[in-house]
Design a protein that fits this description.
globular; 221 residues; alpha/beta
């Protein structure tokens, strides 16, 4: 955002205001586009992890993608506690961080009821939290859970090593989002300072992604 201000020779506050304005409009446009589509029959569901200001303050981006088309059906950004070796440092610096992922999943799945068939096939990893929430919001859906696998060096660490990936559509989309969203790129100086801004930035990138898929579909007839 600072680079935008430098290149355009405007105040960085102007860039922030434009991001907020355009991001909110993008969120509305995404919902309108979803309403115009047929109900998704196969959905892939998982989380992408990043952080807010410091790796001691991780963030989760819960994402739902339509199988094959890679159309992004919805997303939610939420705070989560640190994991592994960062737990002690996170508690010391920022205190106990509330896990907002359950609420984010509930909000997203409730919204997805309008865009995904109740008899859809839902594919995800083996997280028990996912299965419980799927049963609540999509009780008639079929569910397939797959064991997590190690990431490959390519694909921003989102694509998996060797063999067939049963949730490739979602993992490939996560890799694209990291590539196109500067603050999500691994080992970057462009870090998120407010999770609300990350959500708005993602709305713009996801709108571009979905419109590109729509344009490609229309051009091929």
């Amino acid at each position: 955002m600072r680079e935008c201000a430098r290149v355009l020779k405007i105040n960085k506050k102007t860039v922030v205001r434009k991001l907020i304005h355009m991001g909110l409009r993008a969120q509305i446009r995404l919902e309108i586009l979803n309403k115009k589509r047929r109900l998704a029959e196969v959905m892939e569901f998982d989380d992408l992890e990043t952080f807010e200001h410091s790796k001691c303050k991780p963030l989760s981006v819960t994402l739902a993608v339509e199988y094959k088309t890679r159309w992004i059906l919805g997303y939610e950004v939420s705070s989560m506690p640190a994991k592994g070796l960062l737990v002690a440092k996170s508690l010391k610096r920022y205190g106990k961080i509330k896990d907002q992922r359950p609420k984010a999943r509930a909000n997203l799945l409730k919204r997805l009821q309008k865009y995904v068939s109740q008899e859809a096939l839902i594919k995800s990893d083996e997280s028990p939290f996912y299965q419980r929430d799927f049963l609540k919001y999509f009780p008639s859906a079929r569910m397939e859970a797959y064991k997590g696998r190690k990431s490959s060096l390519s694909g921003q660490g989102e694509l998996k090593k060797g063999g067939f990936d049963p949730i490739f559509s979602l993992n490939h989309t996560c890799a694209v989002l990291r590539y196109r969203t500067s603050r999500l790129i691994r080992k970057t100086w462009n870090t998120t300072k407010k999770k609300e801004r990350l959500s708005l930035h993602l709305a713009l990138v996801i709108l571009h992604h979905n419109l590109s898929l729509l344009e490609r579909l229309n051009s091929t007839g």
